[in-house]
Amino acid sequence: MSKPVRICMAGAGRVGKNHSNALVRHVPGAKVVALVDPAAEVRSATAAQFGIEAGFDSLEEAIDRVEFDALIITTPTFTHKALALQAAAHGKHIFLEKPMALNLSECDEIIAATRQAGVHLQLGFMRRFDPEFSAAAQRIEAGEIGRPMMIKSLTHGPGLPPPWARDISVSNGMLAEVNSHDWDSTRWLMGSNYERVYTEVANFKGPANNVDTPNFYDNVMVNLRFESGGLGMISGICPCGYGYDARVEIYGEKGVMFIGSLQGQHILSATNRDTGILQPVTRTWPERFAWAYIYEMEHFVDCIKKDRQPRVAGEDGRWAVAGVLAGTRSFLEERPVYLKEILESVEPVSWQNTAQ
Amino acid sequence: MSKPVRICMAGAGRVGKNHSNALVRHVPGAKVVALVDPAAEVRSATAAQFGIEAGFDSLEEAIDRVEFDALIITTPTFTHKALALQAAAHGKHIFLEKPMALNLSECDEIIAATRQAGVHLQLGFMRRFDPEFSAAAQRIEAGEIGRPMMIKSLTHGPGLPPPWARDISVSNGMLAEVNSHDWDSTRWLMGSNYERVYTEVANFKGPANNVDTPNFYDNVMVNLRFESGGLGMISGICPCGYGYDARVEIYGEKGVMFIGSLQGQHILSATNRDTGILQPVTRTWPERFAWAYIYEMEHFVDCIKKDRQPRVAGEDGRWAVAGVLAGTRSFLEERPVYLKEILESVEPVSWQNTAQ
Amino acid sequence: MSKPVRICMAGAGRVGKNHSNALVRHVPGAKVVALVDPAAEVRSATAAQFGIEAGFDSLEEAIDRVEFDALIITTPTFTHKALALQAAAHGKHIFLEKPMALNLSECDEIIAATRQAGVHLQLGFMRRFDPEFSAAAQRIEAGEIGRPMMIKSLTHGPGLPPPWARDISVSNGMLAEVNSHDWDSTRWLMGSNYERVYTEVANFKGPANNVDTPNFYDNVMVNLRFESGGLGMISGICPCGYGYDARVEIYGEKGVMFIGSLQGQHILSATNRDTGILQPVTRTWPERFAWAYIYEMEHFVDCIKKDRQPRVAGEDGRWAVAGVLAGTRSFLEERPVYLKEILESVEPVSWQNTAQ
Amino acid sequence: MSKPVRICMAGAGRVGKNHSNALVRHVPGAKVVALVDPAAEVRSATAAQFGIEAGFDSLEEAIDRVEFDALIITTPTFTHKALALQAAAHGKHIFLEKPMALNLSECDEIIAATRQAGVHLQLGFMRRFDPEFSAAAQRIEAGEIGRPMMIKSLTHGPGLPPPWARDISVSNGMLAEVNSHDWDSTRWLMGSNYERVYTEVANFKGPANNVDTPNFYDNVMVNLRFESGGLGMISGICPCGYGYDARVEIYGEKGVMFIGSLQGQHILSATNRDTGILQPVTRTWPERFAWAYIYEMEHFVDCIKKDRQPRVAGEDGRWAVAGVLAGTRSFLEERPVYLKEILESVEPVSWQNTAQ
Questions:
Q1: Are B253 and A205 inside 8 Å of each other by CB?
Q2: Alpha carbon of D267: minimum distance to chain A alpha carbons (Å)
Q3: In this complex, which chains have at least 3 CB pairs below 8 Å with chain B?
Q4: CB neighbours of A169 closer than 8 A, spacing ≥ 6?
Q5: Taking the C-alpha atoms of A12, A18, A22 and A25 in order, what is their torsion angle to the nearest 10 degrees?
Q6: Which residues of chain C make contact with B254, given a CB cutoff of 8 A?
Q7: Min Cα separation A301/chain C (Å)
Q8: pTM across the whole model
Q9: How would residue C2 be classed by pLDDT, with cut points 50, 70 and 90?
Q10: Do A200 and B198 count as a contact with CB atoms less than 8 A apart?
Q11: Could you tell me if B111 and B105 are in contact, meaning their C-beta atoms sit under 8 angstroms apart?
């Protein structure tokens, strides 16, 4: 076999672990050679778990001290631009977790830098690599349900996001941190860009969770109109408590297709007529998308080896960010927002504090 | 057994037949004594099918010539007010199909007339009597999923509605004729009234079906905010082609509940690895809600016999009409509409031609 | 409508109530005019519940005092022959619950008596009228899964049968009292008679339930070979505790068909990641086969009105009894038993005490 | 990481490819260093697909020319004993595909040889490593459904086995080649050995497939009694055409548990009311048991590294062979066969031609 692609991980947290696991155990063509995270304790634990030999506080150090081909960025969103620009400047290929960045100008800088450096950029929309999502996408594109008319996509997660991820002044909140996948999937599966967005939000569990962040919400419902004339809905709930829930319903002129299920393992049990039938729920995103995470890493490694363009790249990340911005502005201003309002004025976003 | 409740049917079409079937075959406490429909041929066929002895062109004739206790109104919406007022004036109890009427002033007239006459008024929201919907409602009310945060309700029907039912100038269109059930169910299951509504519509199949009615739409997606702070979504597709689809997902602080299924009979088959597993779909509303139609008729007959107030009455019908008006105004004016805008000005609706 | 068919019920217990309910509430062409049961208290309660005016200790009295057209027999199996013969002698049509009788000579006497009297005889195999079983049967007969190769049929019931029904010296035990439906369904759906039978039994819960009846079993597994060369399996568990379970899997040369489900109402809920997803179970046979019980009664009444032969009659009942006898002999003698052994010698059954 | 375990594959066919895929792509602790198969063309193709550098006609050559730690045997059953003995003699750990061998004396020789050589022996019962089967087993052992009373296990495969695998004179036929997994799973999940076995077989598709092998069957139904008093059923159909079907139902004193499903991907579609709802079927065993194959290889490699006894070993393989022999004798002699008959006389099997 050819020489393995050498990878540096930026971020030793949950997503960093998840991708390290996929790479180390299931992608023989890759070798994780370094791990960057300023939190030394977490870094050491992750490095030990996956046998990563070199650990650093900063990407700069890693670049100086270790040879590698690609950087996988799983750090908080507000760090994405700086890390991506630095990596591109040193000719490293980049796998960038969603959401791509905080606003469109950051997205544009990242895209420009990777183009200029001639490196590949893949976005972390792993649903595109999920066997169910991708089979469904192919069947839809082949016309099985006719021209798509309406889509409903949801991501409901069991736990409360970290403080920065629920504060729209530093992160764009749940619409970005949880529902980025829905923004990408609806656009992908409908085969059309969103044109107009209307959003309602609610805060049900904030008080009980001692969250007093301004504009915090834990429930969101977005109404979409696509350029094709199609309609859509995205919902987010976090924390939802009952499991990890990621499903799509898409309605075409000829029929409907349902993708995904709340059902976990195929084990049904019944021991009591009053309780009824029990079945395990899908508990977590690593469980739900285990193969998707392997396949997206295989794809990234393969694109580097064969010098091919990743299937899901900067433009896709930028569109998802645009949707997030339109959706957020909608609930703040209590009105439908056109994507063209967002796309035509790439100035800093009013509700963000992007001084950092 | 006590003397049967004598019933006159107004309307010999699909819904009239459906209710006649429930009454004649499954509600021994009732007797259908008359059928009113100006379309003589349809009337004769329905009368023959269900052994109804007396048939008339108008309600007036029926009142003059036959003794009966209650009127079941299944005629087009624009006829509801006149028939209900006439029935009330003669002391007849009324079962009124959804949507209750074209606007709030009509609703108010009907409510006032029945109160004044001291007759019972039941609205045709049969989902309240469906074993699954009603069991779910009880479990939600008992706190099983905690305080409701979000609801999604859909009604997608297989066929194209009749011309009057898709023309908002005479009917309020699909939001009223198809989605009235969703307006009622979401308010019922959330235990809260809607506060604000935003609607997107699309017209995908109109051209192929030679529909050139202004403002016609065959896809609708409504975003709801409830007084409780909860969020909601209603979708409608007609014709959807693939079956009759009526499902609810409701998310509370403690968990989720799904009501209904697209699955019809429990017969799975597999004869080909490429085709996969097949299961019958729910084809029609009489099939999906067979027991609900029987139970709502039993309830109506029982309320008359025992002089009790029906569980679903004029106020419920009026709220559904208010939602429909807010939803329709929203897509016409491309903005979120508050229910208070609708409730505070009970003037004729701008897009309706209510000269008839 | 024509004059209702007048019916006398023999048996006021659970099955008698179930059929009275179907007739009184859902079969307008019938009128239940009398109820026979020597247990006066049960009889009065059932009569009151369904508005049956005349109650008697014995069929003789009923025949003397009330005019009726048909008798529905739901009493214990060991009483079937005497009641059926008496009814036939007085020209009454007969609906006879399963199992038909204790042995083949009793079956033969019943068949002969009804033929001689020219009355109709319908057996209580309601699965033949279940919408799912009957649709599946039609599809199988139309060739959808090809020539049937193998069938698996089960009936597991939640509760412990009454003492007489678990004592093979007076009833043929669970194979007869619970699994009669499986004997009929497998033969019907395979389109072939059984040729050879092998049975294993187990007694797991008897001791805890203080059952010390000789040869008592609460688990049974039957291996079948059909005349067609096809194979089959019948299983019975009673009490199974977890619900009422009646399902069939049938495998043909072209594919498989599954009939029925343990799932009750289409209400899924999830409130806890450890518990998972919950769905109501099918709890009881009246719930599972509600429509089947209505349709079998409609069919019986219709056959009387139109003087037609019932779709499921004496021969079907006799075959099920033959299967039961072969299955019972098999586990007693620990060997496969050919049906011809049973069919060729219609002498009294060795393990039965038929002195009564 | 520690030095990888060096593996030689014996067999380059479907199962050999499947295990090579698991090892090469998903078990970083292993390295496949050699492939043995006398069929040079197949061997080259498999070697090329998985980057295996050394290929040989015989195990002898591989042992002479390449250093390795373990042998994975996926060749036809009649070759198992010779290969295993040869490997053990050279101190190689052994992973042996099911069925273990043709008869009990072969099993005993293999067990003795591995013990004497001090090498590990793991049997290819991958269901023990399937996330669903193993979770279910743990829950059953923890008492969730109470003491097991009855089990039903099936394996139905889409295609016709190769000629040697359907000829009981050289292979023990479908009961061994397809249903070995069921023999192992039923014993494992019931927590008890089988005591008595009765089998019926049928040949439905042989003629159309030009199979004229004596005693060929393509449908089998086994009735089991366990030492615990529990009952069981195993069914096999091959070719079944409709998919790959491997499911278990197990009934305990407290309730039931269902393991597995015929359902493949969670993609439901509906485009036609007459066709109904479609869902992909599980098509193949590599698809159904993808994770099980990875985990059983991880376990084997891990046991070698840590010098631990594999969880599923020679005794388990021997018990499955004993079941197969009892089941085969049963249908040949048309009587129930006790396991003790098989276990007490370990002479050559009457229907086998073991001259090879």
A1: yes
A2: 5
A3: A, C, D
A4: A214, A215, A351, A352, A353
A5: 70
A6: 271
A7: 35
A8: 0.96
A9: confident
A10: yes
A11: no
Contacting residues of D for A29, CB less than 8 Å apart: none
Task: Give residue-wise pLDDT tens across range A287-326.
Answer: 999 999 999 999 999 999 999 999 999 999 999 999 999 9
Interface test with B, best of C3, C132, C265, C302 (most B CBs within 10 A): C265
- Which has the closest alpha carbon to C202: D198, D252, D255? D252
Q: What is the least distance, in Å, from the CA of A230 to any CA of chain B?
A: 7
CB D102 within 8 A of CB D167: no
Query: d(Cα C200, Cα C222) in Å, to the nearest integer?
Result: 6
Are β-strands D70-73 and D93-96 bridged in parallel, bridged antiparallel, or unpaired?
Answer: parallel
**Nearest chain D residue to B244, by CA:** D273
Q: Using an 8 Å CB-CB cutoff, list chain A residues near B223.
A: 198-200, 221-223, 233
3-state secondary structure of B61: helix
Which of A206-215, B223-232, C252-261, D180-189 has the weakest average pLDDT? Answer: A206-215
pLDDT band of D35, cuts 50, 70, 90: very high
Which candidate, C215, C92, C51, C238, places its Cα nearest to that of C159?
A: C238
Nearest to D267 among A132, A268, A280 (CB): A132
Min Cα distance C203 → chain D (Å) is: 8
Q: What is the DSSP letter of B147?
A: S
Residues of D in contact with C336 (CB under 8 A): 198, 334-336
